[in-house]
Design brief:
The protein is mostly helical. The chain is built from five helices and three strands; from the N terminus they run αβαααββα. It has a three-stranded parallel β-sheet.
Length: 162
């Protein structure tokens, strides 16, 4: 029995020592305060708008062609096939643009996350933290380094602008 109590005490002491080296970050707070994230979101919105405008233009051209073919009293089989090819081409273009936009979004967000994670790692190393967790998964405890990360990211941006 003494061995079990001693083992439990050692485990608890070990866990409490380990718990002192846990950092937490509020990732959403960091994102909302990081200019790089805001810039990426703005860029993606502009790209979406540009692509939507281009798609709208192509759809209007298709509808015009469709109207012309349907208004002809004697639309030929060739006209109908041309219309089908145009529709297929339009759908392929839309699918390709969705893929391009998705890839761009993935790349932009990966860059943002990478920038943030580098700073988190630097701060964790300076504060001698063994682990850094998102604050959403921590109920109690840990050293919150969110504000330090936000400040460091802001200072990094100022240096890169000079």
């Amino acid at each position: 029995m003494k061995k079990i109590v001693l083992l439990v005490m050692m485990v608890l002491l070990g866990l409490s020592a380990f718990a002192q080296n846990i950092g937490v970050v509020n990732y959403q707070k960091i994102l909302s305060n990081y200019k790089g994230y805001k810039d990426a979101v703005n860029y993606l919105e502009q790209e979406k708008s540009r692509l939507q405008s281009d798609i709208d233009k192509r759809v209007a051209e298709y509808k015009k062609l469709e109207s012309e073919v349907n208004s002809q009293k004697k639309s030929t089989e060739e006209d109908k096939q041309k219309l089908q090819r145009e529709l297929k081409s339009l759908n392929q273009y839309v699918d390709t643009m969705k893929q391009v936009l998705s890839k761009t979004e993935y790349e932009q967000m990966n860059t943002v996350k990478s920038d943030i994670n580098v700073v988190i790692q630097e701060v964790a190393k300076e504060k001698k933290l063994d682990v850094v967790l998102d604050s959403q998964v921590v109920i109690i405890g840990g050293i919150d380094i969110s504000d330090v990360v936000i400040e460091r990211l802001a200072n990094t941006e100022k240096i890169s602008l000079d």
